[in-house]
Amino acid sequence: RYELVPETVVSGVKNRKAEYVADFVYLKDGKVVIEDCKGMATDLYKLKKKLLAYRYGYLIREVKSGGEDI
After folding, report:
1. Residue 24: is it exposed, middle or buried by C-beta count within 10 angstroms (0-12/13-18/19+)?
2. What is the percentage of the chain residues whose pLDDT exceeds 90?
3. What is the DSSP string of 8-52?
4. What predicted TM-score, i.e. pTM, was given to this entire model?
5. What is the DSSP secondary structure assignment for residue 69, as one 8-state letter?
């Protein structure tokens, strides 16, 4: 799990944290590889992908259900 936005309280209203949960995470040649199996990239996924890159500097390797890179 990668926390993208922490839990906040604004004007007394509590907002839950936003997280990204990868399908697979592993090390390859000493680097972190994050893989996500996608049929279709939703708007929410696209936003989380950008936030993950911004906050952690990680890119997501997207794989179709047949095992091909997108």
Report:
1. exposed
2. 84
3. EEETTEEE--EEE--SEEEEETTEEEEEEE-SS--HHHHHHHHHH
4. 0.81
5. B
Question: Tens of pLDDT along 17-63?
Answer: 999 999 999 999 999 999 999 888 899 999 999 999 999 999 999 99
Residue 5: which residues within 8 A CB-CB, separation 6 or more? 17, 18, 51
Residues 6+ apart with CB under 8 A from 13: none
Sequence-separated (6 or more) residues with CB below 8 Å from residue 59: 34, 53
Give CA 45 to chain center in angstroms: 7
In the block, which residue shows the tokens 């936005």? 5
